[in-house]
Amino acid sequence: AHFSKYIAGDLDGEKLEEMYSEAHEKIREDPEHQLAEKKGVTHTRGEPGQITSSDGTEHARNKKITLEQRRAKVAAKIAAAQAKLLEADEAEEDE
């Protein structure tokens, strides 16, 4: 499971060792770090929680809620579950 992509790519221990030795040789030939070119992608925020990139992709970001909001949300879920149980209990008594 962990190395399935290596197996699918037909990489075994010897090939991995060879791959890393070649990489180290290239680094020794030119040890200066080459900065990659920036893509020039900008991000704009639209509707709350929506971010649109200049390359056309859209992302949703959740806004953090306060402790009071979380507690109210939990209380609403508990109340809904209790109401559902009461309805089921009343329906069972009616039968």
Describe the model:
With 95 residues, the chain is mostly helical. The protein is built from three helices and three strands. The chain has helices spanning 4-8, 13-29, 67-94, and strands spanning 43-45, 50-53, 58-60. The chain has a three-stranded antiparallel sheet with strand order 1-2-3, with no helix packed on it. A hairpin with a 4-residue loop joins β1 and β2. The model has no long low-confidence stretch (mean pLDDT 89).
Structural key phrases:
95 residues, mainly alpha, 3-stranded antiparallel sheet, elongated
Instruction: Assign the structural class, choosing from mainly alpha, mainly beta, alpha/beta, alpha+beta, or little secondary structure.
Output: mainly alpha
How many extended strands?
3
Largest sheet: 3 strands, antiparallel
Q: What best-fitting shape do the alpha-carbon axes yield?
A: elongated
Distance between the termini: 53 Å
Global Rg: 28 Å
Order of helices and strands: HHEEEH
Count of individual helical segments: 3
The proportion of strand residues reads 5-15%
Give the low-confidence spans.
Answer: none
Helix proportion of residues, in percent? 40-55%
Q: Order of strands in the sheet with the most strands?
A: 1-2-3
* pLDDT averaged residue by residue: 89
Secondary structure topology:
Blueprint lengths: L3 H5 L4 H17 L13 E3 L4 E4 L4 E3 L6 H28 L1
Antiparallel strand pairs: 1-2, 2-3
